[in-house]
Amino acid sequence: MTDTQTGREKHVKDENRREEGEVPNAPRECHRRGCSEPATFVVLERYQEETGQGAVEATADLCREHTAEESPTNLDGSYADYVFRVDPL
Hints:
Layout: H1 3-16, E1 41-48, E2 55-62, H2 64-68, E3 83-88
Antiparallel strand pairs: 1-2, 1-3
């Protein structure tokens, strides 16, 4: 076996490694405290940090009800690459 093959195998093993206790293909739960509904959307907001140290990305997996309540919260940190996006899971 060559080093290239060993490297590929290691890469595949690393990709398939799961966090301890993680169940494969398990439905995600809503990120909101006290909500045990399944998450159906992921909300992403990318904004400039207040300290000017760079961009920050905040994501949350949310159920339908809590996603409907979301809106941009860091508009004062908006810049050319600012993003507020809601994507289905």
